[in-house]
Amino acid sequence: MLRNTMENSQKALMLMRQIIRSTDMQDKEISRLTGLTLPQLVVMQTLRELGQVTPGELAKEIALTQATVTSILDRLEKKELVVRERGKEDKRRVWVSLTESGVELMKGAPATRQEIFVRNFEDMQPWEQSMVVASLERVSYMLNAQHLDAAPLLDIGQLDRPQES
Fold it and tell me: Which of 15, 70, 74, 90 has its CB surrounded by the most CB atoms within 10 Å?
């Protein structure tokens, strides 16, 4: 019995490590193909889908804080991939959209593991989804991580970090 428990714990740790490594490999691949971090790519994908939006609407859509989104937009604006414009009717509102360069970059952008996960997760039966969520909640509790703030992105580290060279 003890040997089986050890084998299962080792298997569980190996599976978690595979997920972490997959996420790290995705970051490197996205950076190599686009020059962006995963959060920057997610912001750009969302802008491509929604068109012109306010930073607040964008933050709400991707479940990040407005401060994080603002920091990401600052970096994307420096790369001339997004543009922020004051509203014509209401000068207090700021609108964000992709530039032509941003649209072109997105044409060759890869699908993220997050998109693949969501697609596969949504194909599952509701009872299967509940089991996965319950298992992940338990793992989070076992690692004493349930109190950590986390965005719904398969990414490691600070989300508004600059893209590494």
Answer: 70
Provide the CATH number for the domain around residue 80. 1.10.10.10
Provide the domain limits for residue 60.
Answer: 2-142
For residue range 33-90, list pLDDT tens digits in order: 888 988 899 999 999 999 999 999 999 998 888 888 999 999 999 999 999 998 777 7
pTM of the model: 0.78
pLDDT in tens, 124-138: 999 999 999 999 999
Position 70 in a domain: yes
CB-based burial label for 30 (10 Å; 0-12, 13-18, 19+) = buried
Strand partners of residue 94: 86
Q: Which of 116, 105, 98 is nearest to 33 (CA)?
A: 105
- CA 19 – CA 10 distance, rounded (Å): 14
SS3 annotation, 36-71:
CCHHHHHHHHHHHHHCCECHHHHHHHHCCCHHHHHH
